[in-house]
Amino acid sequence: MKNTQDIPQRSRKIKVTFNGGQLTNFSGILPLFTFMKKLKVDHIFPRMLTLSERPNTQFSMTQVLMSILLGLLCGQNRFTKIESFTHDPLVKKLIHLKKHLDKDTLIGKIKRFRFRQTNELLDINGWLSRKVHRQLPGGKDILDMDSSVHTVYGHQEGARKG
Asked: Which residue has the higher pLDDT, 25 or 86?
C-alpha cells in the first residue's frame, strides 16, 4: 500500500467506493430482463397465447413463463433449479412475485399446454426473432458460434483434442 504522501495531491480528492450490498447470484440477469422488457415479451404472452387463466390462480402464465425463460437464460435447466431461482429477491422483484414459484406450480402450468399453445409459443419465438433481426445492421446471415466442448471417442471428423 502506498503512503498517501506518494499520491499526487489532485488524486487524493477522488473517492472510490463500492456498495454491492444488494447484489445476488442472479444480478447479471438485469440486462437480459431489460432487453426482454424492451421487446415487450411480458405483453406478448397474454396477447398471443390462448390459455385461459383460472380465477383462483396465484401466478399468471406470464409470470411462470418469464420465470422459466429467465431461469433457462441463467442456466437453470430443471424445474427444481427454476424454483430455487425464484427465491432470489431480484427475480421476485422483476417478475412481480409475492412469493417464490414452487416446482409443482411450474409443472402444472406447463402441463396445461396442448398442441395449439406449443405452436403459439413457436410463433412468439419467430415473431421475436424477426423483430430483433430487423434491427441488426448488415445482411440477413447470422453466424452462431459455440465453443462448447463435447467428449468424443475414436476418430470423429472435425474433432480435436482440447
From this structure: 86
